[in-house]
Structure formats: structure tokens, C-alpha cells
Amino acid sequence: MNDTIVAISTALGVGAISIVRVSGKDAIKIVNKQFKGKNLEKVSSHTIHYGYIVDKEEVIDEVLVSIMKSPKTFTKEDVVEINCHGGITTTNKILELMLTKGCRLAEPGEFTKRAFLNGRIDLVNAEAVMDLINVKTETARKGAIHALEGHISKYIRDLRQEILEILASIEVNIDYPEYEDIEIMTNQKLVPKIKKVKESLKQIIEKSEHSQILKEGIKTVIVGRPNVGKSSLLNHLINEDKAIVTDIEGTTRDIVEGEINLDGIPLSLIDTAGIRTTDNIIEKIGVDKSIRLIEEADLVIVVLNNNEPLTKEDQEILDKVKNKTVIVAVNKIDLENKVDMKKLEDYQLIQMSVSENNGIEELKNKIKELFHLSKITQGDYNYLSNVRQIALAKESLSILDEVEQGIADEMPIDMVEIDLKRAWDKLGEIIGETYTEELLDQLFSQFCLGK
Q1: What DSSP assignment string belongs to 45-61?
Q2: pLDDT of residue 416
Q3: What value does the mean pLDDT take over residues 83-95?
Q4: 3-state class of 201 per DSSP?
Q5: Would 130-213+383-432 and 218-297+299-370 be classified into the same CATH topology?
Q6: Which of 184, 187, 223, 234 could form a disulfide with 271 if both were Cys (CB 3.0 to 4.6 A apart)?
Q7: pLDDT tier at 242 (50, 70, 90 boundaries)?
Q8: What fold characterizes domain 218-297+299-370?
């Protein structure tokens, strides 16, 4: 934290500008030595200055340099941003120059890590920064901004405060039993207070689990026998002729992927090779891959042919997906019905004719229903944004369950206090009130280099 770091903060490639960011106690001094223009050590904070980056007598580039002095910066350190012409060679030359003049190359996410360690943001804010960089939809962007503005952190801090007030009441009873004007905190008086915290935790956990698909999307695998219309369905959903469609069985031998936006939720679609017994080595590899993808999917769409009776292979496919979220799409309803619909009564069923664009909207609506998309996209962005945060909230809830059971079992109040403190600590880990170096290293290593 005492050294000065540098990294390229924009994507490498041809463009109008690139930004090389420098942060640390010597940031202004180091850049100033390579800047031909005003004396950057004497200019006001949050100002931009025109000039040249030079290496001895050689001009490297014409630049605009932004000066931001501690503590009113992203990292709360002195920060300099060199806005140079876009292009890999020029940008890398300026980066290389800064490295030879006293800067160290920043680790992935190190600027944001310094912002956290210097107290400008908490861990929820930090993770929201990365979410904002990676968002795929407008709904996810709004959720990331909501977290970045501190609303989620406030929600967690309010829950911790409620637990802290319970702990304070217990402490007073333990330490000052002789005072008659304090409320005697019995186990039974704790129950309503604990239930209130538990209810708030349950609500945000449930909402957060539904809302995870805002970030990750719904991984959807389309499976079925050869020639039932899987590739045609993919093409219609993405409005693009991406998958080859023929009447020849086994045309699709490898996966074909596409993506659509379903009410602000990314739907990642994978068309798989037709699942059947085959002696063709290449087709068999595709079939095996299709079966593996079923295990990884959030949603499986099983496509059946309305014009053929259910086959042994159809039933084997249905057996393979019985533990997944499944929609059975009976395709080709424009042809004679030969499928026994009674055998499909236990499934979420859509009847469609992909060739006539019939049933596509019904399929989309069924997906929205299964994944509660209407609840997710109603503008309530108070949810935890990743698995780490949700897992810690669940641990805290589990501990509170233990506390409630302990009270029912007439556990001594000082033992109750210990467990309440554990629940309080777990919530603190969400926002980074308590953390380990290993956690920070793992979390910020997922960030891009210049952030």
C-alpha cells in the first residue's frame, strides 16, 4: 500500500483514447517527470492539463493528464490518469515508461482493493463495481448501481444494528444485575426480536436467489431426438439462422449457442446434437456432450415430434432430465397428432409449430413463469448480488435458527449471546467489516487489471 501502482484502464485496441491510471503517494511526482507542460505538482486537484509524455527528448504522445489529489479520489490516494491516443503500441509505451520510472504494475482489481482498504467503499460496493463492468442487461445495470450507491450495505448494517441492540441489552443484564431500572432481558423477550431479524434475512435471501439470474442469466439447453426441430427453435428464438437446419438426421453434431434478452434477463441458449444411439464416432461425441450439458443447465427444453409416437429414446431423454427444471415442447402441431399427451401431464407442456412461428411466445411466457421473472423485474433491487454474499446471509440465518432453538431449550442467556455474536459477525463479512487476506486476494483477482 506504500508503493505507487499503474495499469491500463481501458480495453486494449484501436480507439480514440486510452487511459493509463496511476495511484499512490508518488503518482503525481512520477508522471510529472515525464510530462512536458505545466508543473503537475503545483496544479489544483481535479484539473486536466494538456501536454506531452516524453522520454528524455523523445515525444511519446500528446496527452491530457487528469490530476486528483488525496483523499477525494477513488483509492483515497493521489491518482493521475493519462489520456493518450488509443492504440496498443502508444498505450503500452506509456505504461512501460511509468514502470521504469518508479511505478509497479497493478494486480487485477488493485485500485478497487485500495479503495476498500482505505475505507472509501465496502465489499458490497467493490463487488458492485465489477458487476457494473460485466452487466449484460439494463435490469442488471440498475441492480449494480443500487448496490454501488450503498443501499444493500445499509440494509445489512441495519440488520447488524438490530442484533447489536439485542446484544447490548444482554450485556447490561449480565454486567449490571443490581440496577432495578433496566429491562430484564429474559430468553422469552428475545424471541420476537430475533424473529424480526430472521424474517428480514429470509426475505433478502429468497429475493437474492431469484435475482441471481440477473447476472448469470438462464443457461438453457435444448435437447431431443434428431430432426424434431431443436435447431429451428433456436433460430426462431434468436431471430437468426445460426444453426443449420435440414431433414437429415444428425445434422447438428456439436453445440450451437445463442443469447436473447427476456424481459431484461439474459437467456443463454444451447442447441445440442440429437440424442440417440449411434455408431458414428463424431455424432456420438456430440451426443455425449449434450448429456453433459443437461447437468449444467438451469433450464432444459425437451423437444418432441407431435407427428410421431413417443419412442424409447424420447422416454430416456425425459428420464435424464427429471431432476431439472424442464419444459416439454411438443413441436409440429400443424401435423397429425400421434403423441399421447396423457403421458406428459406431469411436465410443463407447450404445444408449438416452430415452422409456423406458433407457440414461441407461449414458451417465453412459460420461462418467465418458472423463474419468477415478473417478481425480479419490478424495480426492487434490494438483493445480494453473488454466491458469497448469499452464503454468508444463509449462515447467519442458520445461526439465528440455532439461537431460537437454544431459547426453546432454555439455554443460559450468556450462551445465547455468544451465538448472536456469531450471526452478527457473519453479516459483517458480507460488507467487509471482518475479512481475511485470502478472501480479498480471491475476490479482487476476478477484477480486470486497470480497475
Answers
A1: SSEEEEEEEEETTEEEE
A2: 84
A3: 94
A4: helix
A5: no
A6: 234
A7: very low
A8: Rossmann fold (3.40.50)
**CA–CA separation, 61 vs 93, rounded Å?**
9
The end-to-end CA distance of the chain, in Å, is 16
* Phi (first) and psi of residue 41, to 5 degrees: -75, -10
Retrieve residue 274's grid coordinates.
440429437
Domain made up of 5-122: CATH architecture: 2-Layer Sandwich (3.30)
The model's confidence at residue 236, banded by pLDDT at 50, 70 and 90, is confident
Task: Tell me the pLDDT band of 377, cut-offs 50, 70 and 90.
Answer: low
- Round to whole Å and give the CA distance between 305 and 310: 8
CATH superfamily of 130-213+383-432: tRNA modification GTPase MnmE domain 2 (1.20.120.430)
In whole numbers, what is the pLDDT of the chain averaged over residues? 84
Structural domain boundaries in the chain: 5-122, 130-213+383-432, 218-297+299-370
Q: Tell me the C-alpha distance between 111 and 128, whole Å.
A: 14
Taking the CA atoms of the chain, what radius of gyration do you get in angstroms?
Answer: 29
Distance CA 125, CA 148 (A): 5
Q: 54 falls in which pLDDT band (50, 70, 90)?
A: very high
pTM of the model: 0.71
Q: Which of 449, 366, 421 is nearest to 92 (CA)?
A: 449
